[in-house]
């Protein structure tokens, strides 16, 4: 029989006494010395502790349940005044006017979806490229350090991305990428609206680029994990037939891990949708929908972060909470879908 | 695991016990929140006051809207706002309001080759820039006011306040006063819907954004402009003269204020008559409850404000703010005695 | 071009693209860390660790912000880690296959990736409004809510890795369930659980959004948990957006301190797991 040795110390075959309050009696192999009374009272105490511990753990699990329930309820209650005042029109209005107390979620929702979408467009191919590199191409010695380096990107706090974005990235973009984009697409009908406008440095595109960098480590690490679940035999069979590395990746690895990769992508999408601090610094805080991605805009979390502590009046505050509810709903749907896909892959891998 | 976990738990409990123990004994620091407009002078005062008396003033500059909200929710001892509340709103919330300091809001730009005070602008042109109708710096409307300067064709990036702000209120009140189109399309309030430009948080954020972005224009409280050597503009006032922003032009605007007849000290100082008046001057107000729930904290706060009125004038002038004239100070202190009372009806700050 | 050459070319292109994307990803890491070092090192001095946050225009340090972050992090972990460990224990030991576990696992994943600003809003509504003022308690609770899912996930994963043979042997000797969990399962999974706690600490040290409307900020030293408390992320936020050079320098230095602390914690957690696996 093979004993699992992948975790923990060697198992010593006797149970030592516990002195942390669970029970005061030492149980040794030699219990004949203790009287029956003492033994039965010790057993009773143990059983009580056992029951308490079991209920404690169960209560903690239920607490997690209640937490999410609490968040949803407080969001619903908080946003009720806005929902009852604006109804579904709230989702379709671009106006965000604290003077006349007319609020609509269209601009922040648009900004959230567009920045996350562009971030995915850029981030997913790059992440998959890195994952392919780490699993197929990289020499084994370098695999660990490069893998750790990529994951360190996830460890950098988001406010750091924000200030780096505002002070380093945005000015560079204002001088280089943005003028080039404007000049290049100036004469192409249709696309010139997409890349129009004075180069501010900050804006929707800048926020999307930073989001792409932030999402990289998440998608890469999941893609790496699922790429490694591909049975070597499948790959070796393909190599044996004379396939190149790229053909193996394209025809064996990716189709096999498709569900898992999509799950990882959706997890990254969830992160991009909810990111607050990095976006707040560079998005430009304009409650407007522009056709140009070089223009300033806003996202749900940036709006809440900027305006919540000063929002005055029931309508204004509850409109902000309603935005939070919408964001929560969007991320909930995306994360639930990701979870389902990852679960399905786990089932397939057996 | 047990030992390490015990160590962690031990450390945490020790920390917990210490903080609980010490928090019971901690002294009364005053807490306030609100306008970013007076923040440079309030924090200078707080620093000096702490050195002198040991009492700290924790002032969070979250914007006038935030100050009003927090004092109404009673989460701070006092709120600060550049947008004065009307007497109906004051009574409804049980608040007292008084002016603490005055200063000027100054348009500042970031344009290559232009130095502070070079460029002149007037109200209607400024309004058009913020409405998005004038989009380049070499627009004829601007060129006409500055015939001697060759303006580049850089795009104009108007920067506005993205948070609820009294500075916003002052600026939009001024623009609504000089441009009917602005009044109709945008209006005047602490938070408005801007048709064009970039939003930044706080006077600090706007100053920062202007510094960073080529072609930007923003409206900022003068202390920030001075401290950061920003390129300010000269503004054409009601009398038709282009004035520079400085203490004397703010003072000229403030000299016309009729504080005696203003209910709740509600006075708006924008677009005042007078050849030397700066068009966008304003006072910054303090809000406190008429019957504060924490009488001790209220007393500490009022003692601080009294000290600031008596000893803070020089510090304020050094930053180009205008301290309140002595007649107004006397009126305000009378208001404190009349209006701010504790639960048994006695005035909190006795003279 | 014949088929073979075409295949070779596309392979070379793909490999080149893959290497390129890796370099692209890594270069951002070095750019950001490099910027932090370049801007932050200039302000790094003993003063940063010994003086309070200054008013604009004066020199100072970050002592109260560092202390506040330390206090709120410790209390946040003290509140959140036990709940996470207990819940993870239930899911792995007592209720491994029951419905509650499946639901909680799903909900935990949602909470793990939920936008932290929503959590800040929640704690504001429940604690700040109810208590009547901002407080470090509210900030700590918000951080605790972020800790729970991380710790729960790692605890459950680590406990599930332990082979049942160990558990069965203990039970066969007559050890009650709780004693078996404390003595056997926890000790076996100890390094993994510690990693989870370290990762949670790393995560909450840098979180700004949940603190924005709960603990606010404080320019002075304060032990008072019932009042706003200074903390690093909000201070950095405030100072970075200000136009004062001294404040901006402090913001960069603070960013440097936080980032490298978090990175060291992350790498440290990894090393602990690696070492325990080597010993096993």
Q: How much strand content do the residues of chain A show?
A: under 5%
Structure class of chain A: mainly alpha
Globally, the shape of chain B reads globular
Please count the helical segments of chain A.
Answer: 14
Oligomer: heterotrimer
Distance between the termini of chain A: 22 Å
- Euclidean distance between termini CA atoms of chain B: 63 Å
Provide the helix percentage of chain A.
over 70%
Radius of gyration of chain B: 22 Å
What spatial order of strands do you see in the largest sheet of chain A?
1-2
The chain pair with the largest interface is: A-C, 106 and 110 residues
Mean of residue pLDDT of chain A? 82
Low-pLDDT segments of chain A: 1-26
Sequence of secondary-structure elements of chain B: HEHEHEHEEHHEHHEHEHEEEHEHHEH
Distinct helical segment count of chain B: 14
Contiguous low-pLDDT stretches of chain B (5 residues minimum) are 18-27
What is the N-to-C order of secondary-structure elements of chain A (H for helix, E for strand)? HHEEHHHHHHHHHHHH
The largest β sheet of chain B comes out as:
10 strands, mixed
How big a fraction of the residues of chain B is strand? Answer: 15-25%
* Coarse shape of chain A: flat
Explain what you see.
The complex is a heterotrimer of chains A (350), B (351) and C (280). Chain A is built from 14 helices and two strands. Chain A has helices spanning 36-86, 89-92, 106-137, 140-155, 158-175, 177-184, 191-194, 204-227, 232-240, 245-256, 258-274, 277-282, 300-307, 314-349; strands at 96-97, 102-103. In chain A, a hairpin with a 4-residue loop joins strand 1 (96-97) and strand 2 (102-103). The longest helix of chain A is centred in the first third of the chain and has 51 residues, at 36-86. The termini of chain B are far apart. In chain B, helix 5 crosses helix 7. Chain C is mostly helical. Chain C has eleven helices and no strands. In chain C, helix 3 runs parallel beside helix 6 (136-161). The N and C termini of chain C lie far apart (55 Å). The interface between A and C is large, with 106 and 110 residues.
């Amino acid at each position: 029989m093979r004993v699992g040795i992948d975790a923990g110390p060697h198992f010593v075959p006797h149970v030592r006494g516990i002195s942390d309050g669970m029970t005061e009696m030492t149980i040794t192999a030699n219990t004949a010395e203790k009287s029956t009374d003492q033994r039965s009272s010790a057993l009773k105490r143990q059983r009580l502790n056992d029951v308490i511990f079991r209920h404690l753990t169960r209560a903690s699990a239920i607490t997690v349940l209640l937490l999410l329930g609490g968040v949803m309820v407080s969001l619903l209650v908080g946003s009720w005044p806005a929902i009852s005042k604006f109804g579904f029109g709230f989702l379709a209005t671009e106006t965000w006017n604290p003077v006349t107390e007319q609020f609509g979620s269209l601009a922040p929702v648009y900004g959230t979806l567009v920045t996350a979408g562009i971030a995915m467009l850029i981030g997913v191919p790059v992440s998959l490229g890195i994952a392919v590199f780490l699993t197929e191409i990289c020499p084994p010695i370098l695999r660990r350090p490069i893998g750790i380096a990529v994951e360190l990107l996830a460890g950098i706090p988001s406010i750091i991305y924000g200030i780096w974005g505002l002070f380093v990235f945005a000015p560079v973009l204002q001088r280089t990428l943005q003028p080039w984009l404007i000049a290049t697409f100036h004469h192409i009908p249709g696309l010139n609206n997409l890349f129009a406008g004075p180069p501010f440095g900050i804006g929707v595109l800048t926020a999307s680029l930073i989001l792409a960098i932030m999402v990289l480590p998440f998608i890469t690490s999941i893609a790496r994990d699922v790429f490694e679940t591909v049975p070597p035999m499948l790959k070796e069979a393909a190599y044996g037939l004379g396939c190149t590395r790229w053909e193996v990746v394209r025809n064996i690895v990716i189709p096999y891990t498709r569900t898992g990769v999509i799950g990882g992508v959706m997890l990254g999408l969830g992160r991009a949708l909810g990111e607050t601090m990095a976006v707040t610094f560079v998005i430009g805080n304009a409650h407007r929908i522009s056709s140009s991605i070089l223009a300033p805009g806003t996202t749900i979390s940036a709006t809440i972060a900027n305006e919540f502590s000063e929002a005055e009046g029931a309508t204004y505050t509850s409109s902000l909470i309603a935005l939070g509810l919408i964001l929560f709903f969007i991320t909930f749907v995306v994360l639930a879908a990701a979870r389902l896909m990852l679960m399905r892959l786990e089932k397939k891998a057996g | 695991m047990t030992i390490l976990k015990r160590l962690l738990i031990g450390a945490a409990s020790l920390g917990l016990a210490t903080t609980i123990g010490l928090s019971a004994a901690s002294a009364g620091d005053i807490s306030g929140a609100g306008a970013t407009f007076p923040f440079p002078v309030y924090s200078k005062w707080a620093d000096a006051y702490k050195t002198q008396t040991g009492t700290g003033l924790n002032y969070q500059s979250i914007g006038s809207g935030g100050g009003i909200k927090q004092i109404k929710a009673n989460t701070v001892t006092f709120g600060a706002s550049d947008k004065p509340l009307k007497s109906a709103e004051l009574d409804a919330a049980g608040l007292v309001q008084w002016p603490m300091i005055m200063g000027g809001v100054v348009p500042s730009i970031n344009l290559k080759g232009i130095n502070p005070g070079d460029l002149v602008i007037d109200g209607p042109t400024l309004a058009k820039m913020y409405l998005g109708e004038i989009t380049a710096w070499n627009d004829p409307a601007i060129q006409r006011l500055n015939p001697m300067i060759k303006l580049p064709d850089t795009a104009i990036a108007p920067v506005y306040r993205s948070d609820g702000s009294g500075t916003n209120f002052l600026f939009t009140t001024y623009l609504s006063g000089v441009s009917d189109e602005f009044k109709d399309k945008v209006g005047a309030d602490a938070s408005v819907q801007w048709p064009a430009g970039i939003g930044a948080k706080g006077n600090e954020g706007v100053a920062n954004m202007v510094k960073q972005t080529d072609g930007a224009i923003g409206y900022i409280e003068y202390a920030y402009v001075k401290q950061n050597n920003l390129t300010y503009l000269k503004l054409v006032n009601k009398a038709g003269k282009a004035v520079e922003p400085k203490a004397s032009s703010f003072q000229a605007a403030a000299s016309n204020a009729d504080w005696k007849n203003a209910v709740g000290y509600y006075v708006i100082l924008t677009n005042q008559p007078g050849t030397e008046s700066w068009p966008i001057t304003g006072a910054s107000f303090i809000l406190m409850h008429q019957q504060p729930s924490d009488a001790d904290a209220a007393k500490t706060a009022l003692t601080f404000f009294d000290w600031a009125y008596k000893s803070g004038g020089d510090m304020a002038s050094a930053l180009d703010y205008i301290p309140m004239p002595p007649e107004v100070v006397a009126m305000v202190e009378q208001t404190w005695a009349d209006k701010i009372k504790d639960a048994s009806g006695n005035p909190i700050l006795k003279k | 071009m014949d088929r073979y050459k075409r295949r070779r070319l596309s392979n070379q292109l793909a490999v080149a693209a893959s290497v390129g994307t890796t370099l692209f990803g890594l270069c951002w890491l070095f750019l950001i860390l490099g910027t932090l070092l370049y801007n932050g090192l200039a302000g790094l001095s003993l003063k940063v660790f010994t003086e309070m946050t200054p008013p604009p225009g004066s020199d100072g340090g970050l002592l109260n912000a560092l202390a506040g972050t330390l206090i709120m992090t410790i209390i946040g972990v003290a509140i959140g880690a036990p709940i996470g460990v207990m819940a993870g224990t239930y899911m792995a030991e007592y209720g491994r296959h029951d419905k509650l576990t499946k639901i909680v696992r799903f909900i935990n994943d949602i909470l793990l990736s939920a936008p932290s600003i929503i959590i800040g809003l929640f704690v504001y509504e429940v604690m700040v409004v109810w208590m009547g003022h901002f407080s470090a308690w509210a900030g700590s609770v918000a951080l605790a809510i972020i800790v729970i899912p991380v710790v729960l996930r790692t605890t459950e994963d680590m406990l599930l890795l332990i082979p049942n043979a160990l558990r069965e042997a203990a039970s066969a000797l007559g050890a009650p369930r709780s004693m078996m969990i404390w003595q056997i399962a926890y000790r076996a999974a100890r390094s993994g659980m510690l990693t989870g706690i370290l990762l949670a600490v790393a995560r909450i040290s840098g979180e700004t959004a949940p603190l924005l409307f709960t603990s606010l900020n404080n320019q002075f030293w304060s032990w008072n948990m019932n009042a706003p408390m200074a903390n690093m992320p909000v201070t950095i936020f405030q100072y970075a957006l200000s136009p004062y050079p001294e404040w901006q320098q402090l913001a960069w230095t603070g960013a440097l301190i936080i980032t490298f602390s978090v990175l060291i914690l992350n790498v440290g957690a990894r090393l602990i797991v690696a070492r325990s696996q080597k010993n096993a």
